[in-house]
Amino acid sequence: MKHLVPALALLALAGCGESSAGLQERINTADEAFAPQLLSGFYHIEEHSWRWTKPSFAVALKPPRKAPLGAVLILEYSLPQPALDRLKEVTIAATVDGVPLPAEKCTRTGLLEMRRDIPAVALSGKSGVKVEFHVSPHIPATPDDKRDLGLIVHSVGLVKKQ
Question: At 99, which CATH number?
């Protein structure tokens, strides 16, 4: 059943049937109701409020309605101080349905926000888009934590560009 949920989100992206109606424009990664939109690269919920990601992760999002100027991708994330001390700087790259967006350099801790403009042509006529992220460098697995870690992600979404 776990593998069926992301498959349903992918069907929504392909425009098959009515399943795209379930896609939301903004998702909170700590809310299991949005799990179908977490396509790949997410670990389990921690502290009832966030998830670590793998170095590469993807979500399915519904584009905002009537957005002739396009949209803005908003990723709310954080990187703990010990991770930043170790890595010094992290680059976050993103694509929306294969359209590359400018990368973000993370050099500080705290709750951070990556905002990137998405042209209307990348969203036009689509009931869903696949947003892919890549974090470099990442925190490699250790004997104590066997996970390869990218970022702590709190939410991700699309909002209409004003």
Answer: 2.60.120.260
